[in-house]
């Protein structure tokens, strides 16, 4: 299999993906030119080339795990159904579809928590970073597959492991891989309805350990792909040991909430505050919501999928708790942490505080001091620091 005459052109400094149906200008989300990171890679090109060589996708086309919408946009003529965990990925897809001149209805954009289509004739899988997410999503899609469904996965060689192929083999059916092209590989699986993969093991529910501070012994629900799904992260644990208690706080945000452990701790220690749990991962937001429900606190929080604090109004928050990500789709970057800190400054009321936990070497204090004009260390150990930055300004008198 070759990449089918597809590739990349650079025109006036803009990267374009060359597809069988034309050139596409694609961007990530949020788009901040000049973004050095492309919105597609050789695995997307390989998959599109393979489809062009084999007569194109047929019937109901589902694109699972499209990173920034390159596959969905290139295949918009087939009215694909995209299934994505990522708010950012879905937002990029919408923008890329519009930029390519497609109407917003050209693709159906579902989240990983939505019910998938009942019948799938072509399943295209952009292999996700999380093996757990792949396992869960293949389980959810399996009832919609039939012996005639073409199942094609794509990923960079470094993303496709023996364990990845085993999942396709066990959940879908006989699986083989292509030769590598430009360090990308395809996975070709033939659905076998007689195969019994057993039940979907997700979500994973566990009880927090006795040293988890305010949430010790509490139940946590983890949907597949959520950060540290099988145990309490050591950075989060450090945060819980030093959790702020601010009796006057009326609105507290768990920013990048994951399974909602920090938000849950805030809800338990601030019984009068409204809690907002927000994350760009739909699996995370669903986990946080179910974590609250499992602890009898369903009505205590608002749960939203958004980029950073995109769902939170300016000057409306008293306290923000944040354990920022330092990876974005395989790339190590602190761009998201920067965006979260800048957004926190906007969302905080005067006098409001942002508390951030991070590995010492990440140097978040430099960024926080630059943005807020102040930053103090609440606690530190050889691996982590817990930092506090205050939004300066006068707080309006209480009514
Ligand atoms: C290090 S994890 C922390 C999870 C949880 N707060 C904890 O301490 O266990 C970072 C979280 O940030 C989320 N995230 C990544 N990029 C984001 C963005 N642009 N906006 C909102 N959340 C994001 C990830 O999905 C992940 O759940």
Blueprint of the fold:
Elements: E1 7-11, E2 14-19, E3 22-25, H1 42-53, E4 61-64, H2 70-74, E5 81-84, H3 87-99, E6 108-111, E7 122-126, H4 131-141, E8 150-156, H5 162-172, E9 175-177, E10 184-189, E11 204-207, E12 219-222, H6 234-241, E13 251-255, H7 261-269, E14 274-279, H8 282-294, E15 301-305, E16 317-322, E17 327-328, E18 331-332, H9 335-347, E19 348-359, H10 364-372, E20 376-380, E21 384-390
Parallel strand pairs: 4-5, 4-7, 5-6, 7-8, 13-14, 13-16, 14-15, 16-19
Antiparallel strand pairs: 1-2, 2-3, 8-10, 9-10, 11-12, 17-18, 19-21, 20-21
Helix pairs in contact: 4-5, 9-10
This protein binds S-adenosylmethionine (SAM).
Overview in brief:
This protein is of the alpha/beta class and 399 residues long. It is built from 10 helices and 21 strands. The chain has helices spanning 42-53, 70-74, 87-99, 131-141, 162-172, 234-241, 261-269, 282-294, 335-347, 364-372; strands spanning 7-11, 14-19, 22-25, 61-64, 81-84, 108-111, 122-126, 150-156, 175-177, 184-189, 204-207, 219-222, 251-255, 274-279, 301-305, 317-322, 327-328, 331-332, 348-359, 376-380, 384-390.
